[in-house]
């Protein structure tokens, strides 16, 4: 897909819609080293923190991508056209532990992205490239709404929150 660089301050998104309905493919690792993994994410945020543009994502320790998020300094968030919804559903439900080439099976083409080691994907219509700047493990004692705990059956596998400074962005022309 043809994309061009975009200043993050010029990016216009409907925040709830992009996370809840379109989803992102979160990818961490190093394209050149051939060591990366991706998973579909529907929870997160975009904004400004510490006077920097950021993307915030959450990953459970049980996910294969969790290790890549911890071990590498950069990650990407890729949005795809609506025709890729089935592909994103697959990538969010199959583990890279069980299917090491799940991105190949899904038919996605990894591409280098300026400013980061993590790949983006040629088929994406939006790529947001981030360098990690903060992480924090969720603490169940800080949930103020008890209904949130229903998202954690058994009372464990609480997400780790990652903040990434947005270093580069490109969008479809």
Write up this protein.
This protein is of the alpha+beta class. The protein has one domain: Pnp Oxidase, Chain A (Roll). 17% of the residues lie in helices and 38% in strands. The chain contains four helices and ten strands, in the order βαββββαβααββββ. The strands form two sheets. Strands 1, 2, 3, 4, 5, 6, 9 and 10 form an eight-stranded antiparallel sheet that branches. The chain starts with a strand and ends with a strand. The mean pLDDT is 97.
What's this entry about, in short?
The protein has 173 residues and is an alpha+beta fold. It has helices spanning 15-22, 64-71, 85-93, 102-105, and strands at 3-5, 24-30, 35-41, 44-49, 52-59, 74-79, 110-111, 120-121, 126-137, 160-172.
């Amino acid at each position: 897909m043809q994309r061009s660089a975009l200043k993050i301050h010029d990016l216009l998104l409907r925040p709830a819609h992009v996370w809840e309905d379109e989803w992102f493919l979160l990818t961490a690792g190093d394209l050149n080293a051939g060591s990366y993994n991706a998973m579909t994410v529907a929870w997160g945020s975009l904004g400004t923190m510490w006077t920097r543009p950021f993307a915030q994502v959450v990953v459970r320790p049980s996910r294969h991508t969790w290790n890549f998020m911890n071990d590498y300094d950069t990650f990407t968030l890729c949005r795809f056209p609506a025709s890729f919804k089935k592909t994103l559903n697959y990538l969010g439900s199959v583990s890279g532990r069980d299917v090491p080439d799940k991105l190949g099976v899904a038919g996605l083409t990894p591409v280098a992205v300026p400013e980061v080691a993590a790949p983006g994907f040629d088929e994406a219509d939006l790529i947001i490239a981030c360098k990690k700047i903060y992480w924090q493990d969720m603490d169940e004692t800080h949930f103020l709404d008890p209904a949130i705990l229903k998202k954690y059956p058994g009372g464990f596998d609480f997400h780790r929150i990652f903040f990434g400074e947005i270093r580069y962005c490109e969008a479809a022309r």
